[in-house]
Amino acid sequence: xxxxRQPMLRHALFAxxxxxxxxxxxxxxxxxxxxxYESDDTIVVSARRREETLQDVPLAVTAATxxxxxxxxxxDITSVQRITPNATIEVARGSNSTLIAFIRGVGQQDPLWGxxxxxxxxxxxxxxxxxxxxxxDIFDLERIEVLRGPQGTLYGRNxxxxxxxxxxxxxxxxxxxxxxxxxxxxxxxxxxxxxxSVPLGETFAIGGAIxxxxxxxxxxxxxxxxxxxxxxxxxxxxxxxxxxxDTFSIRISGDKTEDDSNAKxxxxxxxxxxxxxxxxxxxxxxxAGLGDGxxxxxxxxxxxxxxxxxxxxxxxxxxxxxxxxxxxxxxxDALPEPDFDVPARYIDDQFSQEFQLLFNTDRLSGIAGVYxxxxxxxxxxxxxxxxxxxxxxxxxxxKKENFSVYAxxxxxxxxxxxxxxxxxxxxxxxxxxxxxxxxxxxxxxxFFPENTTSIFAGRQTGYEGLNRKDDQxxxxxxxxxxxxxxxxxxxxxxxxxKAGGFDxxxxxxLDPLGLSQEGFAPEKVKSYEVGMKGSAADGRLTYAIAAFLxxxxxxxxxVQSGADSDNDGTxxxxxxxxxxxxxxxxxxxxxxxxxxxxxxxxxxxxxxxIDAEIDxxxxxxxxxxxxxxxxxxxxxxxxxxxxxEYPETVYGGSLQFNGAAxxxxxxxxxxxxxxxxxxxxxxxxxxxxxxxxxxxxxxxxLSANWTSSDDRYRIGLHGRNLxxxxxxxxxxxxxxxxxxxxxxxxxxxxxxPRTVTATFEYRY
Length: 764
What we know:
Elements: H1 20-23, E1 30-31, E2 37-38, E3 44-45, E4 52-53, E5 61-65, H2 66-71, E6 87-91, E7 99-103, E8 106-107, E9 119-123, E10 126-128, E11 141-148, E12 162-168, E13 177-185, E14 189-199, E15 204-215, E16 219-220, E17 227-228, E18 231-245, E19 248-259, E20 267-268, E21 295-308, E22 313-331, E23 341-360, E24 364-385, E25 390-412, E26 417-440, E27 455-484, E28 487-498, E29 523-536, E30 541-563, E31 573-596, E32 601-616, E33 618-619, E34 622-623, E35 636-645, E36 653-664, E37 697-708, E38 713-720, E39 728-733, E40 746-750, E41 755-763
Parallel strand pairs: 9-12
Antiparallel strand pairs: 1-2, 3-4, 5-11, 6-7, 7-8, 9-10, 11-12, 13-14, 13-41, 14-15, 15-18, 16-17, 18-19, 19-21, 20-40, 21-22, 22-23, 23-24, 24-25, 25-26, 26-27, 27-28, 28-29, 29-30, 30-31, 31-32, 32-35, 33-34, 35-36, 36-37, 37-38, 38-41, 39-40
């Protein structure tokens, strides 16, 4: 089978990924003598652990190289949602570097310890277990690949929604390399990125990168005068590679990121309860009083060894350790007084080990592997409720131990027909401590040991050593057929699994039956997909179309609300519950296409449509599914773009323009709707309140890039959100349907305003 039976090359895992034919910002295709069109770049991905063209791989995958992302002015890993159908990849509420990712309706909103992400993030084959610090900036990057749908038969940790692979550059073992890049733009932006490598002999090379990102805030904390939505981040990476023979190599790498950006408190959408503090005019402003100090430190190291035993077998080992520490103040009420303030700290570490065996024969190729993860996530926070004169202290630890074996193989039945079969067996053990205390006063003595004014009033939860074990076999099968030399069809069935856990905010005193000690169960999905990829019109048109249906069962849903513990009519605490929704159905269509209108102009279109419905949630024998919705999943997402390369040489180089209109329909931020509330629905806020869930919006972006003829110098100008759209990406609501505190939380977080950035790059 010419299309799907690609030889598994040595080092295929490090093949470059390019979607120039589908992206609309890559090089424009050239016309051959016979009138056909062909791309200037090889379109290659390694999504299936082998080297295949993007058009041939029978998976729904979007990929982009670092150059392509730089040409559109990509800021960080969240920028890939601009080019990926049915994906929401955003910075978490009240955070600068915590990632919230949803693919095809599957993800995880709550970044608290004890909850696992539904979309896996990988850096050089290393799974990032926690979302803190996972908003990766674009530096020292080779490519990013986004795989949609359940993953687990090819590598790493099982992920139920999809995977985002961040692959760093490999070193040149023959020649020294160097690049320097500066970004200067709106709001005082000034970034500096340096990277390079140097061979030390014929078999050894070292390399590294350092990045410093600085930007003033889009708004101001009107209470403290500090920048709000600013950026102050430094990142470092150091690598060494040894290849004593053509068949054996070892790579060691270490990285560290320090994020000192100010705390992000949000824009309050209601005045204070007494009416003395109005809503700010600028949606990027806040009046938070908890403080602006915020620090996130993430670091890790990995060792990858690869041995080509012979032309048929390759053995690979990936050993990694990572840790992070986050100290952050979260001012829920976004007002000067500590009506609902939450100082918090999160700590996590992880060790992982993976062994892989890749094999390739004339018609059979594939991979088999063993994966082990030992991770710990812990934290503590105070919920300070000044109007009630008390503080609620929550702390805990959750240990995850995961062991998995997996395999996936492809057999070419004929030169045009191939069948792939894979499976994964996972054992997942969770051990948890959950602690919750009530203190009289502002700030508990547990979070602030130096606080001698608060009085311990009792423990609401004191669980230690909670334990649950989950195991699951998840199969995958696909069939691929080359209908014509330019048309490939595929169909697949796969299952996904995310282990259960324990609610880190559980209320033991309100749980006389001890149900919270059993934890919440795993969630599972059965995914069906059909797709078609190919080209037409003598290569002028390239396309990738996928349709999917996912039966989702036992989805883990988190609900938090205020509660009245002493029945005096005032909510003086909050309760959290995590339960498994009975069943949900997600179905949709995804289209990625490009049309080469001329030798110099390429037009592109991307569309993702999804119909996501929660079908059944049974409570006391009644189906209450109509009270819940799917979160972070717009029904429609679309992108129309162009890339135009000026036909003449400009100052000894090439000039390219690209732009796009990017549309997202309205969607829900939580599993319950937040349409606002009418006048009279709240005693404390009788005038009512606006909606929190985002409306539909369209972003317009334009870029111009000049590249010297020797490819050493590059200058770019990037305008993002040119029409100054105000669009919400996250929110807090503790006003309706249940009030917590006097002013409580009713605030929103917004995407970036209009910005213009100039980039200057030198490469050697």
